[in-house]
Amino acid sequence: MNINDMEIVLAIMKNSGYKEVVTDPESAEVIFVNTCAIRENAEQRVWQRLNYFWFLKREWKVNAATGRAKSLKPPKVVVLGCMAERLKDKILDSDKMVDVVCGPDAYRELPSLIKKVEG
Q1: How far apart are CA 28 and CA 76, in angstroms?
Q2: Which end of the chain is more exposed for a tag (fewer CB within 10 A), N or C?
């Protein structure tokens, strides 16, 4: 299910002009975290990953100056999926850790949501 959701999201983003998928978060301009509330310890793992991505955002200037960050601007963190819907308020209130929270029914809105937070 998560793989299918990410294929949909990637197609939407490519159709909106995003061209490249990178494997390391230091090089990403947008980081997608696809969540699922069904798996055991899923929420804990999501928070751990979000803490790491928050660190990347916070330290972007230093990382860019040293060559560790390869993106042209700090990454935007987008949390997707059913857990994102369920914990939306908690995630958005988490010290600007996340830029966009999007449930499965709103994936088509992702490009415009990302543009809103960039401005």
Answers
A1: 8
A2: C
